[in-house]
Specification:
Length: about 350
């Protein structure tokens, strides 16, 4: 099973659908990440060109970026594309006569700069590319508002197009690998992801600790700081970190008593939709785009309040009827989002830009 996420998953889903669209001819500049995420299977339907792979050699990233930029510019001039849609904040093809579309995933660097290194130039590059883009896709209304408020991007320049869940394992194909009740957390745990709040809240309830464990999926092994905190909270035998493929993740969603998403900020937030797809009750932060995604299908809490999270945990874990209600609402809510809809709306946006 393939394991891919974030921006790579977004473009994988778009390209896989565009490749079957009779109105679209894809001219793909395929970087090395394509091999890792399976997009090479669409090469027979695309004009493709491979950039120079950036091997893990210290202090060479800038060199490889410049090489690929030059190669892409040469490639672009030969193709003369109607639409140029980069996967991240890059200024490639900026001198070409083509419509430039940029997807803005979030405004985390601008809203929460304290979580990033001073050497991180993402904010600077992003602003330049946003200013030069002909059209911007925001993945939530929250991100659109942030673009308008922080960078003063004209509202008419922004199109909101939602993402979706990609997990596809059948719900009746569960591989029951966990033999104890547990609460599930998914993804990176650093900084604004707010995993520390979940740990501390979990540790406060004797009832929860006695009856449940906490599983963190993905994000790598616990850091020394996390291990130290887990020991300080006396949760050594209660908190587990697991890694694996999409099938394992689907199994965890299907077996978890509840899924908790405590992030301080998200541009969209796919994990709550994944949980809903597999009938897992959602407890999520009421911050940024998360309420927009979750709707009334989950319990929302202030991500700075351990008390609010604890109340929602207690209510969900101890009330089977509430869990059933959340599951039913979750199925309905998740069905409103799809990658097919995302791809069609993206294509429609391309056409609208070309018509102007």
């Amino acid at each position: 099973a393939q394991v891919y996420g974030g921006i790579s998953r977004y473009f994988f889903e778009l390209i896989s659908r565009f490749s079957d669209h009779h109105e679209i001819e894809l001219d793909l500049y395929l970087g090395y990440f394509v091999n890792q995420y399976g997009l090479e299977k669409y090469q027979d339907k695309c004009v493709s060109y491979f950039g120079k792979k950036h091997d893990p050699i210290p202090k060479t990233a800038r060199i490889f970026s410049l090489i690929n930029s030059a190669k892409l510019s040469s490639f672009g001039k030969k193709l003369n594309p109607d639409i140029y849609h980069p996967t991240y904040y890059e200024e490639h093809l900026k001198h070409m006569n083509t419509q430039r579309v940029l997807t803005v995933y979030d405004m985390i660097h601008e809203k929460l700069p304290e979580y990033f290194s001073t050497s991180d130039k993402t904010r600077y590059v992003k602003q330049k590319v946003i200013e030069s883009a002909d059209g911007i896709i925001a993945i939530s209304e929250s991100t659109k508002r942030d673009l308008i408020e922080i960078l003063h991007v004209p509202e008419e320049k922004i199109e909101v197009i939602y993402l979706a869940n990609s997990l596809s394992k059948r719900r009746d194909n569960i591989s029951k690998q966990i033999d104890f009740p547990f609460i599930l957390y998914v993804g990176p745990r650093n900084g604004y992801k707010n995993f520390k709040l979940l740990l501390e809240t979990f540790s406060r309830s004797v009832n929860i600790k006695n009856n449940f464990k906490l599983i963190s999926f993905g994000g790598g092994a616990f850091t020394k700081e996390e291990v130290s905190l887990i020991r300080k909270l006396k949760l050594d035998d209660k908190v587990i970190q697991l890694s694996g493929n999409d099938d394992l993740l689907a199994d965890l969603y299907m077996q978890a008593t509840a899924f908790v998403y405590p992030s301080l900020y998200e541009g969209f937030g796919i994990p709550p939709l994944e949980a809903m797809h597999y009938g897992c009750p959602v407890i999520a932060s009421n911050s940024s785009s998360i309420p927009e995604v979750v709707g009334n299908a989950g319990l929302l809490f202030d991500p700075t309040s351990s008390d609010e999270l604890l109340v929602n945990l207690d209510n969900t874990l101890n009330d089977a009827e509430l869990r059933k209600t959340l599951v039913d609402l979750g199925y309905q809510r998740e069905s409103e989002f799809s990658w097919g809809k995302c791809a069609q709306e993206t294509f429609n946006y391309y056409k609208s830009l070309m018509a102007n």
